[in-house]
Amino acid sequence: MKRPSGSVPSSVMDTERFEKLTLKIRRLNPERDQDLQFPEYMSPGASGLDLPAAIAGELILAPGEIRLIPTGLVLAIPPGYEGQVRPRSGLALKHGIGLINSPGTIDSDYRGEVGIAVINLGQKPFTLRRGDRIAQLVINKVYQARILLVDDLDQTERADGGFGHSGR
User: Structural domain tally of the chain?
Assistant: First the structure.
């Protein structure tokens, strides 16, 4: 049974395992996009909200092609938090669809439309349809570091080893 658009599954509303945070979401074109599923957590333990493709009809993504896909959504992420836009594992595994800048970051002071920079890493064209869940949004706490310019840093056993220094 399909839930009404924008509703939250009762199992999610009943859970007390997660810190509660209010995320304000506005549809850019409410009348045009009323058919799109509103972002929601799809299970009680889900960390990401699925984001829809707010495209007209279908769009074919050729192998290697990169496109910016609109969601029709604007967010008000609270100060001290960020939104991370991440790929959906099923699209990646089954079709090679990923995000070119994964994870994408949405800062708390950004108020433009959320766009999803997708890439087809697969070997076949991929058809994206209006309303497809194309990415997920995870809200995380962030910290701004106090920057201190110094002449020396403390030494570690690893030192400057990187890019495969620990073996395969």
Answer: 1
Alpha-carbon separation of residue 99 from 86, 89, 105, 118 (angstroms): 7, 11, 12, 4
| Other C-beta atoms lying within 10 Å of the C-beta of residue 76 | 13
Q: Is residue 163 part of a domain?
A: no
- 87-137 pLDDT, tens digit each: 999 999 999 999 999 999 999 999 999 999 999 999 999 999 999 999 999
Residue 4 has a pLDDT of 52
Q: Which residue has the tokens 């209010």?
A: 22
* 151 in a structural domain: no
d(CA 27, CA 31): 9
Query: For the domain that residue 59 is a member of, what is the CATH number?
Result: 2.70.40.10
Q: Is-above-0.85 flag for pTM? A: no
Residue 58 lies in a domain: yes
Q: Is residue 114 part of a domain?
A: yes
Q: What is the span of the domain harbouring residue 124?
A: 10-141
Q: Which residues of 127-157 are buried (b: 16+ CB within 10 A; e: fewer)?
A: ebeeebbbbbbebeeeeeeeeeeeeeeeeee
Q: Give the pLDDT score at 120.
A: 98
Three-class secondary structure of residue 69 per DSSP: strand
* Separation CA 76–CA 85 (nearest Å): 15
